[in-house]
Amino acid sequence: ECLNYSLARIDSLVTTYHRLYFEEIKCFKGAIAYIQYLINSDKTVGIVSNGIVELQQNKLKLTGISELFPDDLCFISGSFPQNLKKPSPYMVELACQTSKIDPQNAVFYGNSTDDLVAGILAGVTTVYFSGSTPIPEDLPQIAQPVFTLNCWEELL
């Protein structure tokens, strides 16, 4: 028993939450169009994501993004030991190495401090995507992005 809820009630609440979460999950407006623009411009695209592999793959599939990224350029931290997950630069470096791109010619878009630190330590250009969350004012120097982005449509 947890607080005032029975385990059956908690299970029901969590199940309902996950069902509704996955029914409502969407990409930010313009994101797919921008990724498609990069692909059409012969740019290599990959994804580096923290999280449980099955959960992240489900999100990517439901948003329609999974078909845009080649399997060999999809790096999800659940496949890696804890010390190699973001903010470690390892997965970003691996993405660059796998795609044969010099980190100095790569751009990493992220929406968290962990993303920014991983990109900066990997030596890539970092872009903070704020969506509806502005960049934190107290962001440490090691996490300062090169660029900030409020919406994907700004790039098209």
Q: TL;DR?
A:
The chain is built from 5 helices and 5 strands, in the order ααβαβαβαββ. By secondary structure, the chain is of the alpha/beta class. The model has no long low-confidence stretch (mean pLDDT 90).
Task: Please describe what this structure looks like.
The chain is α/β, with parallel strands linked by helices and 156 residues long. The chain contains five helices and five strands; from the N terminus they run ααβαβαβαββ. The protein has a three-stranded parallel beta sheet, covered by helices on one side. Strand 1, helix 3 and strand 2 (74-76) form a beta-alpha-beta unit. The longest helix is centred in the first third of the chain and has 18 residues, at 7-24. The chain starts with 6 loop residues before the first helix and ends in a 7-residue tail after the last strand. The model has no long low-confidence stretch (mean pLDDT 90).
Work out the radius of gyration. Answer: 17 Å
What is the first-to-last residue Cα distance? 51 Å
Morphology = globular
Number of helices: 5
Note the topology.
Layout: H1 7-24, H2 31-40, E1 47-49, H3 53-63, E2 74-76, H4 90-99, E3 107-110, H5 113-122, E4 125-129, E5 147-149
Parallel strand pairs: 1-2, 3-4, 4-5
Jot down its keywords:
single chain
